[in-house]
């Protein structure tokens, strides 16, 4: 027997299950598609086929798989490491060393969050062209490593860092940098974990800016590769699907491993 | 107000304060503030490629008479006006449903609905492009269950191409917004709902009279971020429709990209178009803050 409350909730269950199904379905179809031939994918076949190896080989023939994954990993890891370092230093700095001038500066940098990337991309492109950094991975990550949203997140989280710990460390003769690296960083590791996911995903999935700065095939990341494969006149959907699966797996793994931190990281922006 | 005393301790704190924030300040100045000023200067330049000269307001005059710019502006606003309200409402309804403590499997349902927002914009766009192709999965399914008698030209008809983009963005971002509402709902005291129950308030009544007013600041936050996101729409249109058919889905960001990197480079004019986005973002944000501020 189902209770009255549960019976009243049946429409809610139906609604939520439909939405959940629609949310998951494209993932399922992506997995089915990498096992099918082009014509099966094109006609929307929903059953698993036996073409996985062929699709994989086809992808590998058109792009240097190892190279592309290496490039993407390099960009994501480098971007994430630098962002976490630079943004957490700033977030800690703004919170722990408050001064009237720095508050003003902080308000100005918060305003820069409102500037759309479209307004920056042309001057950024000419800046990198002049400095000879076009077509490098450093050019891909550099403009985002001082990510204001993440600075804001670290500042909000730093409010929870106990002042007594800082005092005690000072008494022990540690300088401010030692306090940051040896006490703050280890204690705030869940904050770092949350920020890690957001920043890693953004870097792994980045598209427009890499599309502008990366020109040679040897430098291209997975999103650029998928995009160019699928924009071919007659796309090889089997190979394209292999690309989308390869691009999605790392972020899915990171998400499932650190689901709670991911949500926490997103919510950093509305915490009071 | 008393002037702060310059004690050695204060000076020490000040030096460290600047040291900790210095790297980010330099990078933000270089990669955000300098470009946005440079962009303003660029918008006064006319000419092709690297050969440019001062043109005063001629780019703005060109803007007003550029049919492609007006199309991009119109498309961007159609996406904004249609998609953002649909998504915000859907996210609110979902969060409200998932917040019911009697509901079982809440965790699984929440994770499932949230999952789209961990995919890359390019990967899901490409996926949607194949699903919505003329002979593709969606049409096959709709034909099979007799909802339609002829396939819908999702990607090749100006109207349906816009619909496809709207469906795609809604799929990707609804769960993202839902999480903010779920978090905010958790902060609402359950006793308010219990009191409403005692007075015999209907679920609809509770949703519109308690939930929505209580969530107003979060709704404002998600509306602003969604608006800014939609104004910058690029990855989806680039990978699903390439702005087509016949520019029916071209957005401002895509037009700027085309002006700078696809057509003969015209950085000056592209910068002018990009400033339109800056102005719209600023205007809409002020407007949205005003609306919420007044109702408080």
Automatic annotation (TrEMBL), chain A:
The UniProt record lists the keyword Transit peptide: no
Domain of life: Bacteria
Organism expressing this protein natively: Gynuella sunshinyii YC6258
Protein name: ABC-type sugar transport system, permease component
Chain ranges of the ABC transmembrane type-1 domain: 69-258
InterPro entries: MetI-like, MetI-like_sf
Family: Belongs to the binding-protein-dependent transport system permease family.
Membrane topology: Multi-pass membrane protein
Keyword field: Cell membrane, Membrane, Sugar transport, Transmembrane, Transmembrane helix, Transport
Subcellular location field: Cell membrane
A GO term from the CC aspect: plasma membrane
Segments crossing the lipid bilayer: 12-32, 75-94, 106-128, 134-154, 179-202, 237-258
GO biological process: transmembrane transport
PROSITE patterns recorded: ABC_TM1
Main location (coarse class): membrane
TrEMBL record, chain B:
Pfam families: BPD_transp_1 (PF00528)
Gene3D superfamilies: MetI-like
GO CC annotation: plasma membrane
Listed transmembrane segments: 12-34, 76-95, 107-127, 159-183, 214-234, 267-287
Membrane topology, as annotated: Multi-pass membrane protein
One GO BP annotation of this record: transmembrane transport
Annotated localization: Cell membrane
KW DNA repair (keyword) present: no
Keywords: Cell membrane, Membrane, Sugar transport, Transmembrane, Transmembrane helix, Transport
Main location: membrane
Domain ABC transmembrane type-1 positions: 73-288
Record family assignment: Belongs to the binding-protein-dependent transport system permease family.
UniProt-listed PANTHER family: ABC TRANSPORTER PERMEASE PROTEIN, INNER MEMBRANE ABC TRANSPORTER PERMEASE PROTEIN YCJO
Protein name: ABC-type sugar transport system, permease component
Species of origin: Gynuella sunshinyii YC6258
Organism lineage string: Bacteria, Pseudomonadati, Pseudomonadota, Gammaproteobacteria, Oceanospirillales
């Amino acid at each position: 027997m189902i209770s009255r409350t549960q019976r009243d909730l049946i429409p809610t269950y139906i609604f939520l299950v439909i939405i959940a199904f629609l949310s998951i379905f494209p993932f399922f179809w992506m997995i089915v598609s990498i096992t099918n031939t082009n014509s099966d994918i094109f006609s929307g076949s929903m059953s698993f086929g036996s073409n996985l190896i062929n699709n994989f080989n086809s992808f590998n023939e058109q792009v240097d798989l190892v190279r592309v994954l290496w490039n993407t990993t390099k960009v994501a890891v480098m971007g994430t490491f630098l962002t976490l370092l630079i943004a957490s230093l700033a977030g800690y700095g703004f919170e722990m060393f408050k001064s009237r001038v720095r508050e003003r500066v902080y308000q100005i940098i918060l305003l820069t969050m409102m500037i759309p990337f479209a307004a920056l991309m042309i001057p950024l492109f000419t800046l990198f062209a002049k400095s000879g950094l076009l077509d490098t991975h450093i050019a891909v990550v550099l403009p985002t490593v001082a990510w204001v949203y993440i600075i804001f997140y670290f500042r909000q989280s730093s409010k929870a860092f106990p002042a007594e710990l800082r005092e005690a460390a000072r008494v022990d003769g540690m300088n401010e940098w030692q306090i940051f690296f040896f006490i703050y960083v280890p204690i705030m590791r869940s904050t770092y974990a949350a920020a890690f996911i957001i920043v890693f995903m953004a870097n792994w999935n980045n598209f427009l800016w890499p599309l502008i700065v990366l020109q040679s095939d040897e430098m291209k990341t997975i999103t650029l590769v998928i995009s160019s494969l699928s924009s071919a006149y007659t796309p090889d959907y089997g190979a394209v699907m292999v690309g989308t699966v390869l691009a999605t797996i790392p972020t899915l793994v990171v998400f499932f491993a650190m689901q709670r931190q991911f949500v926490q990281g997103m919510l950093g922006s509305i915490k009071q | 107000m008393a002037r702060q005393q310059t004690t050695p301790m204060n000076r020490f704190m000040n030096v460290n304060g600047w040291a900790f924030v210095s790297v980010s300040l330099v990078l933000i100045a270089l990669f955000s503030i300098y470009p946005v000023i440079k962009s303003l200067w660029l918008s006064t330049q006319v000419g092709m490629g690297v050969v440019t000269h001062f043109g005063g307001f001629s780019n703005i005059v060109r803007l007003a008479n550029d049919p492609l710019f007006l199309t991009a502006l119109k498309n961007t606003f159609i996406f904004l006006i249609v998609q953002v309200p649909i998504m915000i409402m859907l996210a609110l309804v979902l969060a409200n449903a998932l917040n019911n403590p009697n509901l079982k499997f809440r965790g699984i349902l929440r994770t499932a609905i949230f999952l789209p927002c961990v995919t890359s914009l390019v990967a899901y766009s490409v996926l949607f492009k194949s699903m919505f192709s003329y002979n593709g999965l969606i049409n096959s399914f709709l034909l099979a269950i007799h909802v339609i008698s002829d396939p819908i030209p999702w990607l090749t008809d100006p109207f349906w191409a816009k619909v496809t983009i709207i469906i795609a963005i809604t799929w990707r971002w609804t769960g993202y917004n839902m999480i903010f509402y779920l978090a905010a709902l958790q902060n609402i005291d359950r006793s308010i709902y219990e009191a409403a129950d005692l007075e015999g308030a209907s679920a609809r009544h509770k949703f519109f009279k308690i939930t929505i007013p209580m969530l107003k600041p979060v709704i404002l936050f998600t509306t602003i971020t969604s608006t800014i996101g939609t104004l910058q729409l690029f990855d989806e249109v680039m990978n699903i429709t390439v702005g087509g058919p016949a520019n029916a889905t071209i957005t401002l960001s895509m037009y700027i990209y085309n002006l700078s990197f696809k057509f003969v480079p015209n950085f000056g004019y592209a910068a002018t178009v990009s400033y339109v986005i800056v102005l719209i973002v600023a205007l809409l944000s002020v407007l949205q803050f005003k609306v919420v501020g007044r109702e408080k």
